[in-house]
Structures are given as C-alpha cells and as structure tokens.
Amino acid sequence: MKYTSTEADALIDQEFAVLDRGEITLLDYMGTDKAIVDAARVSVKGLKKVTDDESLIRRLVSDRHTSPLEMVEFKFRAKMPLFVARQWIRHGTAHVNEMSARYTVVPDEVYVPVRTRIQGQSMDNKQGSDGSEVDEVAEALMVFDQSAKRSVESYHDLLDKNVSRELARGPLTVFHYTEWIWKIDLHNLMHFLRLRLDTDAQWEIRQYAEVMHSMAWAVAPMTMRAFRDYSLDSMHLSRMEVEALAGLFGPLLEESMGGKLSMGMLDDAALNPIITMHLDQKCSKSERSKFGNKLRRLANFYLNGNEVRPG
Ligand SMILES: Cc1cc2nc3c(=O)[nH]c(=O)nc-3n(C[C@H](O)[C@H](O)[C@H](O)COP(=O)(O)OP(=O)(O)OC[C@H]3O[C@@H](n4cnc5c(N)ncnc54)[C@H](O)[C@@H]3O)c2cc1C
What we know:
The chain is of the alpha+beta class. Helix content is about 50%, strand content about 15%. The protein folds into 3 domains: about 5-105 and about 175-230, Gyrase A, domain 2 (2-Layer Sandwich); about 115-170, no CATH class; about 240-305. It has helices at about 5-10, 35-40, 55-60, 80-90, 135-160, 165-170, 185-195, 205-220, 220-230, 240-255, 270-280, 285-305; strands at about 15-20, 20-30, 75-80, 95-100, 120, 130-135, 175-185. A hairpin with a 3-residue loop joins strand 1 (about 15-20) and strand 2. It binds flavin-adenine dinucleotide (FAD).
C-alpha cells in the first residue's frame, strides 16, 4: 500500500529559501501517520480495533515505542554553509550524499549574516551569541564581505594556476555553501528536531530545522502533534530540579488537602480531583494515571527527600 498526503505532495520539489543563499527541498517521502498505525497494529491483525489512530500514535510517542515511527521517511535536498553542515552531519542516523569539492568547482556562494545576526559573545552561554548587535556592526559586516571575496578569489587563483580542485579548496571558509541529499526516518528526524529547534542550537541550523519541522507536519500531522505534546514542549528534570519542585509542590498539596501530608493519603480518590482540575481534559486515562504517579513521586521527595541512590 502506498501512503500519501495531499499536503505533503504539494510540497514536493518546492525550494524553500533559508539564510541568504541556502535552500531546502522535500524531494520525496515514504509513509504517513497511517503507515505508523498500520505497522503498530501488525501484532493485532484480525483483532478488533480498540484504539483510534490518533490515540494509538499518542500512546506510541508518549511511551517512546519508536520503531513504528521509523516506517516514515523523508528525502531532502539542502544547501547550507559548511559550518551548518558540520553540525548537521553529527546526526549519524541519516543517509547523506554531499557535493564533492574534489569532483566539482564549488559555486561562489558564501554566507553573509544579516545585520541583526552580528551579535556579541554571550557571557552565560559559551557557544552562543548574546542577542544584541555589536557596536561596530557596519565594520564587522564589511569584514565578513571582504573575507568572502578574498576566499573566492584565492580559490579561483589556485584553480587558474591549474592546482587540483581537491587542494584549491583550501582557502574556502566554513561560510561557503555546500549541498547534499539527506534521507532520514521520522523517529530520527524528531530527535534531530528536538536538538536543533532548541534555542541552544545555533540560529542558522535552527532555520533549516524550522522548515523541515513544518514539512514533517504536512506528512504526519498526528505524529507531529504527539511529538509537540510529549517531546518538544515537554521537559526533562534533573534530580535537583525534582527536589526543588517537590519543595514548592508539597506545601501546595497540603494546603489543598487541608492538613499534614502522608504517602498513605495519596490514593486515587485523593489525587483524582487534583488531576481533573489541573490536567488537560483531553488527556487519556493512562495519562491521568501517569500524572498521578508523578505527583506521588513529588510528594515522596517532599516527605522523604531523595529516593536514595549511591553518591
Ligand atoms: C547545542 C549543541 C551543541 C553541541 N556542541 C558540540 C560540540 O561542541 N562538539 C561536538 O563534537 N559536538 C557537539 N554537538 C553535537 C552532539 O554532541 C551530537 O553529536 C549531535 O547532537 C548528534 O546527537 P545524537 O548522537 O544524539 O544524534 P544521532 O547521531 O542522530 O543519534 C541518535 C541516537 O542514536 C544513538 N547513537 C548514535 N550514535 C551512537 C554511537 N556511536 N554509539 C551509541 N549510540 C549512538 C544515541 O542514542 C543517539 O542519541 C552539539 C549538539 C548540540 C545540539
């Protein structure tokens, strides 16, 4: 069976501009939400369908049952500066074929950041910019521009002297554009997006991640909705953060229950009204139950401190 999506079909071969000279195109895709659902149901073939498609997908994503998500694949063509490609290539669970600078003459295309991107070094994030334009922004832009021209000139100078392409590329900078075909399944794309849509990721690679994210919505909207709810907009907490939250949560719980807390009090009957009041009404029975368990864990941290582990 061939799974198709009208929204995704409309995107095929459309070039989306990214940065000043970059592009990203969805060349092809395989599978949709339905491919995930059908794969997940392989073990219950012939049995009565007990869950609707979206609930099943939400369950898969929230429980990290990820193999059915690998049934959906994407093939992109992307053109990006070399420094973006270096960050991107670290995601080793994809298949890639890149333009060869040994085989072909590299186009004279160099990334020049827009003025608002010429920001100072962040003081609290050693890998990031601080969000404010530097004082000498016009001069800095000129340096970027001159460096781009110089590197292109040196490259062509070496080619003109009959130096081989594989060596002549030496003067090219990491701001030169490269191009590749990138194929990845939805499970690993979601992992990529989680890391590269984050504000900790460099702004330039985030621009590419944003476009691929919206393309993935066209291919598998139910799965992307679940990805947003259970992954992208969810939070991972450290032990220290759990303790801190437990300190805030314990007194609130005592106030709402009108007395000193004990673990024995926190049965379903006590927690259900709190869950109903605070959890989205659309959450399933199993989500309500998981939330109840998390509240119990927080209460346990509050009453007994850390669930003691060595160290
Ligand atoms: C904000 C940010 C800053 C970064 N800074 C740096 C940096 O300074 N220097 C640097 O070198 N990198 C840096 N990286 C790259 C980072 O360390 C990862 O290599 C990259 O994000 C890919 O992540 P991944 O391995 O989880 O993804 P994938 O390669 O897509 O792998 C997916 C998952 O497969 C498993 N897996 C993949 N490869 C292996 C393996 N070899 N063995 C076992 N399991 C594997 C892991 O569970 C992994 O999470 C940075 C990344 C981000 C997002």
